[in-house]
């Protein structure tokens, strides 16, 4: 393994690093919002919307991201919907992650003990107040570990963006190998690149997990 | 002042085909303490939970302050400000501090001013000897302390009627005393209460009336404390013996 080669390839990997990070961020934020929205629809049992959410979740969780990306990037243009590669990547990540996030949030909300709901009712809280002050804060805190796992999962999924030629970390490494046969160096930088994103993130998420459990209602 | 705070007439409840409450009739006068006794599975908890709408029932009429209760979620939500309840398990909201647990109802449900509600909450905390714990989280409290806070949380809404569902049943023996003292003080101040308990000495001390429940039916309804010394039915006598009373 040659340090010179690594040094020479760093600028291009740096660009790929920031791109991967940017697309992950958009994807995760979008997936979280979609998941939160879907879990609220489930929680409040909103008719019709609830069924749609269930169909979406089954579809999203039971198809690979690879195929989802093919659809968005290669099949949609057939019906006149041409979406640029990076946008396709984000849409794919949101579509995939939304269902995982929804399951994580729903799991948290379902995990709030029944007696908590009854105690809330017993002091006269309305359903909305019960949700706002008791069930959502506790449920969201309960769902943090699953959310954290999803965040990491979604970042790792960005490696599949290679198939629609987004120059993220994985694609760049494969390019470097294909062009210069710098296999060891490229794979080394690739691993380091993901580790720089994922290890600190994982630590932050663990810290957040502990923090999330307690708060106030801010009167 | 009304002479009947709560009236229960012909209350029947079934889970599927299994009837758990049979034609329950009784009334509670203001300022009185009614103790609900009976073996496990006799329907005490189910009955007490019917009285603030946590359980639905098939037939019967409840009245509060001479007003028939229409058992809709909306009515119950309003009424629960007047009918407080404390549960067996420590049920404080773990995501809120002690003071926020107490203030949630007064501020958000009753929309009272923060200064006034806080003043009352501080006074109540003082009465249960937990002033220093206002900003603590429930996880930092012992079971007995949590249960005293749960009582304060219910009292902060200024209820006219308090339901206690085996509030000492999951406490360590030495924690029980403190919780019972809080309830005895309430009784002294003429708070109307319905108490489910297995603490027989306490029951005798606090009871103005006794309801003895077996298999979902009221077997004995006695004024005063004679239940403990002169139970009318063999079943009640057996029950008192089994409690080593």
TrEMBL record, chain B:
GO molecular function: ABC-type amino acid transporter activity; ATP binding; ATP hydrolysis activity
Phylogenetic classification of the source organism: Bacteria, Bacillati, Bacillota, Bacilli, Lactobacillales
Signal peptide annotation: none
Keywords: ATP-binding, Nucleotide-binding, Transport
Protein name from the UniProt record: Glutamine ABC transporter ATP-binding protein
PANTHER family: AMINO ACID IMPORT ATP-BINDING PROTEIN, PHOSPHONATES IMPORT ATP-BINDING PROTEIN PHNC
Pfam families with a match to the protein in the record: ABC_tran (PF00005)
Listed InterPro entries: AAA+_ATPase (IPR003593), ABC_ATPase_HisP-typ (IPR030679), ABC_transporter-like_ATP-bd (IPR003439), ABC_transporter-like_CS (IPR017871), MetN_ABC_transporter-like (IPR050086), P-loop_NTPase (IPR027417)
Family assignment from sequence similarity: Belongs to the ABC transporter superfamily.
Family annotation (SMART domains): AAA
């Amino acid at each position: 393994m040659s340090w010179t080669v690594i040094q020479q390839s760093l600028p291009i990997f740096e660009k790929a690093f920031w791109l991967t990070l940017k697309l992950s961020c958009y994807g995760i934020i979008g997936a979280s919002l979609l998941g939160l929205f879907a879990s609220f629809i489930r929680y409040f049992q909103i008719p019709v919307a609830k069924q749609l959410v269930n169909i979406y979740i089954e579809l999203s969780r039971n198809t690979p991201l690879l195929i989802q990306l093919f659809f968005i990037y290669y099949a949609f243009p057939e019906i006149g919907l041409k979406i640029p590669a990076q946008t396709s990547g984000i849409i794919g990540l949101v579509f995939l992650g939304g269902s995982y996030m929804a399951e994580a949030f729903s799991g948290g909300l379902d995990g709030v003990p029944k007696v908590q709901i009854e105690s809330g009712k017993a002091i006269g809280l309305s359903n909305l107040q019960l949700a706002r002050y008791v069930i959502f804060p506790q449920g969201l805190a309960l769902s943090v570990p699953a959310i954290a796992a999803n965040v990491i999962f979604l970042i790792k999924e960005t490696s599949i963006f290679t198939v629609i030629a987004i120059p993220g970390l994985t694609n760049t490494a494969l390019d470097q190998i294909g062009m210069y046969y710098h296999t060891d160096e490229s794979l080394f930088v690739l691993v380091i690149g993901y580790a720089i994103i994922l290890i600190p993130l994982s630590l932050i998420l663990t810290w957040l997990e502990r923090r999330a459990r307690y708060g106030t209602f801010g009167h | 002042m009304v002479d009947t705070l709560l009236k229960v007439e012909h209350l029947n409840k079934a889970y599927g085909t299994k009837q758990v409450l049979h034609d329950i009739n009784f009334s509670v006068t203001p300022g009185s303490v009614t103790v609900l006794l009976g073996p496990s599975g006799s329907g005490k908890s189910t009955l007490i939970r019917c009285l603030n709408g946590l359980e639905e029932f098939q037939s019967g009429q409840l009245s509060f302050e001479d007003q028939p209760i229409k058992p809709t979620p909306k009515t119950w939500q309003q009424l629960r400000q007047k009918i407080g309840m404390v549960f067996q398990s420590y049920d404080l909201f773990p995501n809120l501090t002690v003071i926020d647990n107490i203030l949630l109802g007064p501020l958000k449900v009753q929309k009272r001013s923060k200064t006034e509600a806080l003043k009352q909450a501080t006074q109540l905390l003082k009465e249960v000897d937990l002033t220093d714990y206002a900003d603590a989280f429930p996880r930092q409290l012992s079971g007995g302390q949590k249960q005293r806070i749960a009582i304060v949380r219910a009292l902060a809404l200024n209820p006219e009627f308090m339901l206690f569902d085996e509030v000492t049943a999951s406490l360590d023996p030495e924690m029980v005393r403190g919780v019972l003292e809080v309830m005895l003080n309430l009784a002294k101040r003429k708070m109307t209460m319905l108490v489910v308990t297995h603490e027989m000495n306490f029951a005798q001390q606090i009871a103005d009336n006794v309801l003895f429940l077996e298999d979902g039916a009221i077997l004995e309804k006695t004024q005063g404390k004679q239940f403990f010394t002169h139970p009318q039915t063999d079943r009640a006598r057996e029950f008192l013996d089994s409690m080593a009373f």
